[in-house]
Each structure stands twice: as C-alpha cells, then as structure tokens.
UniProtKB/TrEMBL annotation:
UniProt superkingdom: Bacteria
Keyword Transmembrane helix: yes
Domain VWFA: residue ranges: 38-227
PROSITE patterns assigned: VWFA (PS50234)
Transmembrane segments: 392-417
Alphabetized UniProt keyword annotations: Membrane, Signal, Transmembrane, Transmembrane helix
Signal peptide (residue range): 1-28
Name listed for the protein in its UniProt record: Ca-activated chloride channel family protein
UniProt KW Transmembrane helix keyword: yes
Amino acid sequence: MINKRRPTAVLIGLLAATVLTGPAPALADEEPPAEPPKVELVLDVSGSMRARDIDGRSRISVAQQAFNEVVDALPEETQLGIRVLGATYRGKDKKQGCLDTQQIVPVGPVDRVQAKAAVATLRPTGFTPVGLALRSAAQDLGTGATARRIVLITDGEDTCAPPDPCEVARELAAQGTKLVVDTLGLAPDEKVRRQLLCIAGATGGTYTAAQSADELSGRIKQLVDRANETYTAAPTVVGGTAECANAPLLAPGVYSDREAFSEHRWYRVPVRPGQELRASVSLALDRPVNPDHGVLLRATAADGRELVRGVDAGSGRTDVVSAGLRWSATEDGAPPTPGVTPVPATTVCLVVSNSFAPRPGTRATPGMPVELTVDVVASSPAPAAPDLGRGWVLLALLTLAGLLTGLVAGLLTRWWVATWREN
C-alpha cells in the first residue's frame, strides 16, 4: 500500500529547513553554457588609412593582409564578425559621414573565402565614427552568458563625437555584460593613444601600438586566440550594500558589481563548521586615478569582528588590482559527520573597500567594475610540525645526537694531532 502521507511530510520538512536556514544564496552559473567564443574585428577605413608609413606600404593594405592571415588561422570553434567604419561615404557632409559604419561579415562560423573577399574590396574613404562603430559592434555580438571580444584597429582619433568612444566603452561596461574591447593603434599619435587606452581600460581590454605588418597580424591572432582562452560564463550581476545586515547572500560562484571611489560594499556568505571560505576580488581601473592606492578584502563576523584580512594578489597588470583571503569555520577543520544533523552555518560578511580617488576632471559615475569570486570547500588543517614543547622523545634524540657528534669529532681531532706529531 502506498503511503500517501510521505509526500506531505517531505514537503513540510523542506519548508521547515528553508525557514531554519534563511533565504537561499544567490547562485552563480555552475557550468559554462555551450556557446562558442565570439569576436568582432572593427576596422577603420577612413581616408587617413591611405598613408604609406608601415614598411613602405599603406595602412589599409597592411590591415588587409593581417585580416587574411587571421581568417586563415581562425580556430574552428570561434565565431568571427567584421565591421568597418568610414568605408562608403565619399562626401563632405559630416552628419551623413558620421553614420558610415557597416558589418561586412556577420558574427558566426566563418566562410573564409567570403570574408577575405569582403576585406579585399575596402578602400580608404571617409570619416572616423569610432564611438558609433563600437556601439554597433556590441549589438552585432548580441547578448549571452559567455565573454565576447571586440578588436578595434584604427589609425586616428574619433572625428564624429558624440558619441565619444570612451563614453561608449564605459556605457557598455556599465551594462554588466562581459564585453572586452582591445585596441590597436596604427599611427604614433599621442591623442590617438590616449583615446585607445581609455576605450580598452574601460572594458578591461588592452592597447597595443602596431608599427609593422608582422606586429599587427601577430597581435590580432593573439587577441582572437585569447577569446578562446577566456571563454567563460559571464559573472552574475549582484549589488553589494552599505552594511552587512541586508547584504546579498552569495553561494559559490563569480559575481560582478560596481564600486564608487573610496566605497565599502558588503556581501554575505554562509560557511558551516568544517568548511573553508575562499574569496578573491578584482577591481578594474577603467579611468584615471591617483597612484599609490589599492583595494582591500576583509571577512568579518556578523557583529563586526574582523576574522581575516585579505592580501594583495597582483597579476602584474596596472589596470586591475586584486586581493584574496581564506578563512575556516573551525580550528580543527573536521568535516561534518555523515548522518548527523549539520550545525547551522555561520554567516560571514565580506567587505570590499577601495582607497582610490579620481584625478581632476575624472567622472565618478558609474562605479569601477568589481569581480568577486566566492568558493566554499572542505577545510584542510595546516600540516603538522614538530612540537618540542610536548615531544620529549624528539628532544632526547636531538640531545643524544649532539653528544655523539661531539664525541666523534673529539676522537678524530685527537687522532689527527697524534698523527701529525709522529710525522
């Protein structure tokens, strides 16, 4: 006979467990979704690309060669798109010329012959609407759970602002999407360099000055390959609070947030006895800040007592600062006993603080990008070490070894002296 009371009892038990343990933590994506890496190359085809100053060749011909080499070497799993700017309008109407951007190869599996044919027909023509092209490229790549990459190749400063390309990059970063813009400069111009640095810095990308055909093609290949290497699920967007009491409850995963200058943002993580909390934070410096400042990650108890203070975890990059910490819920690190009702979890408060200050003229909003990684694992006790305070046997052995060593050394010395006198 089927027991009809069992489902009701199970449901009541689950509801009771939910009430006792509190609200469920926010969950980050557990597994990367089955989406291919996506990259869009954005090429400046404005009139200045006619200049013949790269290995005696025009900038556009060098870029076309680099694109062909990249298309030939493209990994099968990578979806690639190509967008151009300043490629079609030959007139002098700036309003019309600043709308001149087109996607000539849609993002997807690449038809190599079609892609190379589309690039081969490009001729330097018009204005330089970099900001509009970046915004359009982000739309080309669409939304999704995986990292996406834009590689911008240009030889000049935007001539069409607004929209200002640096502001567009910040706008894209503020949307919480995992979008990285890498920039390649083809002209040794300081204004261009500053603008491309700003675009890359706002999204966690890189800037490179390419002064030869080999440098350009090699760098583009490297960035396309990096899209495969950094093919991960986008962090879950979460909003830290000004105090621990009402902070979001986090499960193991990767989270993204925004933090204003000199701000403290709080999060909560449940940790049971026998478990160890491991957390790290990275803060992207997407705008000019005063030097000699940093980011601090701390774990505190709910009553404000500091449990552990994180240590710097620099990666050598100057546009990202990081810190990490570890904390165990028990000293002995013993795992929970099977079959025994688990002890209620301790709520650990994580606080991310930064001491950065903006330089004059730097915008304070939106806040700087923060990526927080949280993991809770079975704690492992520290390796045991000899304890001379309690190890009398070890102490006696060491004493005996010292006496024997002294005795042997004395006998050898006496033998050597006697032998020397006889000779």
